[in-house]
Amino acid sequence: MRAGVLDETFRAAGGRIRAALAARYRDLDLAEEAFAESCLKAVKAWGTGDGASEVTDLPRDPAAWLYRVAERCALDILRRRRTRAENRPEEPEPEPTVEDRLASDDAVIPDERLKLIFVCCHPAVAAESRAALTLKLVCGLSTEEVARAFLVSETTLAQRLVRAKRKIAEAGVSFEVPGPEHWVERLAAVLSTLEVAYAKAHEDAAGSGRHAGFAREMLALSALLSDMLPDEAEVLALAATIRFAEARRPARTDGNGVMVPLAEQDPALWSKPLIEDARRFCGRALGISGPGPRILQMMIHALWCGRKSLADPPPWKAVLAAYDILVGLRDDPVTRINRTVALAEVKGAEAALVELDGLDAAALADFLPFHAAMADLLARLGRIDEALAAYDRALALGPGAAERRFLEGRRQGVPTLQSAHRVPGLG
């Protein structure tokens, strides 16, 4: 029970607490270190209910407790750095709650996390590091998770993060709310951050993983961002995409907790209010701009959410046509892999495998969707041993419980797929 409270508090409040600490002390490293120390103290103080803890009861407000301890940790760290006289901030107001601290900002951006996202996405930081720094600091993703999201090595990612934090310190980047005139120049990195953060929640179909809360948070932050920038089509498109995707969550697993592929989901189970909300954002975005990368992603999701029942055929041809345009605007491995899924349904597994073979397999060695797509195509073509190896590689990359059950089921069915897909090109 207590372990669950610990985990939930760390996940739900961690981003807000790190953001509040960074905003108060103007030091990203200090915010991370102080939060980490407060988490260790919480583990020791709260315990797990086995009698080994220092206290018998959980705090009334675990997030507030964690924040206050983190503040004290920050001051202790400053003392240890022997620079207390120069760097000690003003004493906090007497007994404010963490909710008071995080909700009392009267500036234009009312959420501390979104403020810190804008700070981390400052133009002084290298473009390839902005979203990565934000995901690590504000969202609490591990270095490994961020590295996988951007398809780089952990070493490369760690070096980028160190340089980014150093640049923010050296450039004297203000931790105050940036003025509206500075929002657009940081927008690409901000959108990438929200996109990857939501992807971490979406990759877990059951919504039971450690990043499940990102789904709710990205719904809120994308709405907030659309209020700040109501005439930015890419902002509206991302807000629509998140809502289209999240609307499908009720149908993403079956009664046995197995992931259900998109084409096999029952549209009757999808959230109609979220789809309607998404369509409103979609209409606003299309009224402002022609096809851009996020506009096309939005339209792909809209195509799927246009299905009314399982009797409606999957829109594979339209989806493939959209991906054909998208790769001309955003030609990256993720887009290519998604395109091969549609290509296999329209032109066959052999054509799709040719496309997938053209990608950099070494760079995608730790990217689970690549191995899952490869396994499916190889199985369709009757290349059993290679398919089994690809499934094994995908399973070794630690999918969520629902995805693991799905992949294990497909792997077990591989020997029977040879007869089902005996003729190449009929995938």
Q: Could you explain how this protein is built, in words?
A:
- With 427 residues, the chain is mainly α.
- Among the domains are: 89 residues, no CATH class; 96 residues, Serine Threonine Protein Phosphatase 5, Tetratricopeptide repeat, CATH 1.25.40.
- It is built from 21 helices and no strands.
- Helix 7 crosses helix 10 and helix 10 packs parallel to helix 12.
> In CATH, what is the class of the domain at 332-427?
Mainly Alpha
In CATH terms, what is the architecture of the domain at 332-427?
Alpha Horseshoe
Main beta-sheet strand count, sense and barrel state = none
Structural class: mainly alpha
List the secondary-structure elements in sequence, H or E: HHHHHHHHHHHHHHHHHHHHH
* DSSP E strands, number: 0
DSSP strand content: under 5%
Low-confidence stretches: 50-55, 90-110, 417-427
Count, helices: 21
Helical amount: 55-70%
**What is the approximate shape?**
globular
Mean pLDDT: 83
Q: Whole-Å distance between the termini? A: 47 Å
- Might you state the CATH topology name of the domain at 332-427? Serine Threonine Protein Phosphatase 5, Tetratricopeptide repeat
CATH superfamily of the domain at 332-427: Tetratricopeptide repeat domain
Rg over CA atoms: 23 Å
